[in-house]
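Thread: "does anyone have the structure for this chain?"

Original post by V.I.:
We have the sequence but no experimental structure in hand. Need at least a predicted one for the grant figures.
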Amino acid sequence: MESQIRGDKPVAARPHGPDLAGLAAFTLDPKGLVGSWSVTAERLFGRTASAAVGSDVCDVVMAGPDEGLLLRRALAEVAAGRVWTGMLALPAAGGQVAIRCEPITGSAAGSLVIAQRASPQPGPRLLSDAVARIGSTLDLAQTAREVVDVAVPRFADSAAIYVPERLLAADDISSYRARPTTIVRRLAARLGDLPGDMADRLLPPDEVLVLGEDMPCFRAMAASGPVFSDHLDGAIAERIGRNPGGPELIASYSSCLAVPLAARGAVVGCAVFGRTAASPVFGPDDLGAAAELAARAALCIDNARLYDRERRTARALQRSLLPGRPHVPAGLEVAHRYLPVGASMVGGDWHDIVPLPGGRAALIVGDAMGHGPEAAAVMVQLRTAAHTLADLELPPEQILHRLDKMAAGLAAAPFATCVYTVINPLASSCVIAQAGHLPPVLALADGTTRVLDLPPGLPLGLRAGAFHATEISLPSGATLALYTDGLVESRTRAFDDGVTALREALGAALAEPATALTTVCESVSEALREHGEDDITLVLARIRQR
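Reply from O.Q.:
Generated one for you, tokens below.
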């Protein structure tokens, strides 16, 4: 156990052991499918073994999008040989559940999951409130506010939460002892009975501060142990002292306690608590409650930090994958829509529009296998390569051949589907080549639609060797629809039914000739997304009527 510091003297902390009652255990395969389901798991989640085994764990425990994202991260951690722990809100278990996932050793791949409902533990009311109130969301600022609201006034007269700036900006966890100062960001603060807006004016959220090595907050993070002091941290005092009444407020505090926030073996921040002269000074008897509160706060804050990082990564990837504002030739109209499967998910879909000499344009739609950052990483490389090859004006079949060789050489050995088209408005024609992709749909000006019968080709990455291009007539007013399988396929809808629905929606949307193509694209994608379980991409193109 870490030592606690009062000046230079360590203070022994009281041990607190976990309640081992009511543990439930089950196993998962690498894809997250339940492999075994114990009697205790049946009791905790209300699912029988026959209903659970073989099903996706997210469906079994009724995980929402946020909790599902954390469970997928847990599987990735286990696949890398690491143990993952966290607190998840799972409706099937009736609330918060503590989860531990660890790799299964031996020939069978997968993970052992140990779960326990997070019921209030015997002890101070503070700890019960912490379990119930901290970590209700994966929002970093909200989680920090929940921590200070739990601490004040039950445990302290003031509280503030700090996180190292480099941890937020660069995900850098490194030693505090190696630096004479550290830069932190205040996530939230509460000062006694002051209204929240007034406290925010005195100690603004997101304010960045430089802590010196003599400050309790810095020392607590550097030593990984609580630090007592008889005055407010200098960073807090300086900020409060600039305001009317600030010096008097500072003088009223006679006892402070800085507690490091440690999660997954690393210090991810610091909680600073203060008490006025009207309250008892902090002492060894407070360390148990402070440690429990800090442990809960640290885990929830780190979960929120990791989720925020994944969300920012996903959004950056999404922005990088969508075409910018390409120059579309005057004789052509193009509309496109991309709908990710989840609010913060990225997948393998991509599309691009590349203007070519002679008023032509290359339209590309592709789909790398899988979801998440892995599929997105493959897709970024393929999209960049396809755009570069399009600028070389190579024939569509040669471009697919080169993309195939590139995909086969990637370290992850992925495969992807792709359809590559070159539309020539002057010749009213289109040249199309496919690599395992779903066939385009052509809607004529009279409202009739048909699925183009083209050589399908093999997916990219399988070293198919050769691809074949087909030239079709594209009369004025006709609309060509390129799409990914997420638009037409799902577990509850067969491909043929999905394509029929696409043709009907496209024909209905194009019934009014004056309808803008962007409106058609939006209405068709919205009409078909109801059954969507995958990323959806739809690109529409038509030659302008002369």
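V.I.: this helps a lot. The longest strand covers residues 181-191.
O.Q.: and The two ends are 80 Å apart (CA to CA).
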